[in-house]
UniProtKB/TrEMBL annotation:
Record protein name field: cytochrome-c oxidase
Organism name: Nocardioides terrae
Repressor recorded as keyword: no
GO MF annotation, one: cytochrome-c oxidase activity
InterPro entries with a match to the protein in the record: Cyt_c/ubiquinol_Oxase_su3, Cyt_c_oxidase-like_su3, Cyt_c_oxidase_su3-like_sf, Cyt_c_oxidase_su3_a-hlx
Annotated Pfam families: COX3
Domain Heme-copper oxidase subunit III family profile residue range list: 1-192
PANTHER family reported for this sequence: CYTOCHROME BO(3) UBIQUINOL OXIDASE SUBUNIT 3, CYTOCHROME C OXIDASE SUBUNIT III
E.C. number(s) listed in UniProt: 7.1.1.9
Residue spans crossing the bilayer: 7-27, 47-66, 87-107, 127-151, 172-191
Length: 192
């Protein structure tokens, strides 16, 4: 039931992001002169590396889910023996990668603000920060969810099916956030 409820909730989130995409393209169509001047200020290679980190975090998240489904909470060998990792290690790595993505977004924001791309400056700035900012809030929400799942693994005496389901549900959310970012990256950084 939790998985079905999460999928229904993610459908509503999909509608939210669809509205952001629609607003982005609508404003872009009525103010096309703003886009060439502002998109040249974007650091596409930096954003591509940041995107790669986020997309790879989906892989590490899924590895954690596989370990959760197998009932393996913690590592059974040395730290650098990745094959012996459990849910905790994979989710911690996913958390770190997500945090690096958020730090990268903050770095990009600081750079763009110095170049004069701000929310009150233009419709481009408004849409850039609105779309990427809401996505960043969703990534931050995912990071908090990872902390809750990790905390449950340390507090619980035994690893149960319910804990595996919570890891799976968090992975649904994380994969969703990653897919949305791929769309945003293509829209903002590639389609000029």
């Amino acid at each position: 039931m939790v998985s079905v409820g999460t999928i229904i909730w993610l459908s509503s989130e999909l509608m939210f992001f669809a509205a952001l995409f629609a607003a982005y393209y609508t404003i872009r169509s009525v103010s096309p002169e703003l886009w060439p001047a502002n998109t040249e200020k974007l650091n596409v290679p930096f954003a591509a590396v940041n995107t790669t980190i986020l997309v790879l975090s989906s892989v590490t998240c899924q590895m954690g889910v596989f370990k959760a489904e197998a009932g393996k909470v913690g590592r059974s060998g040395r730290l650098f023996n990745v094959g012996a990792w459990g849910l905790r290690e994979w989710f911690l790595l996913t958390y770190v990668m997500g945090a690096i993505f958020i730090a990268g977004q903050a770095t990009e924001y600081a750079s763009l603000i110095q170049e004069g791309v701000t929310i009150p400056d233009s419709a481009y700035g408004t849409m850039f920060y609105l779309t990427t900012g809401f996505h960043g809030l969703h990534v931050t929400g995912g990071l908090i969810a990872f902390l809750f799942v990790l905390g449950r693994t340390y507090v619980a005496r035994t690893f149960t099916h319910e804990q595996a389901v919570s890891a799976i549900v968090v992975s649904y959310y994380w994969h969703f956030v990653d897919v949305v970012w791929i769309g945003l990256f293509a829209t903002i950084y590639i389609i000029k």
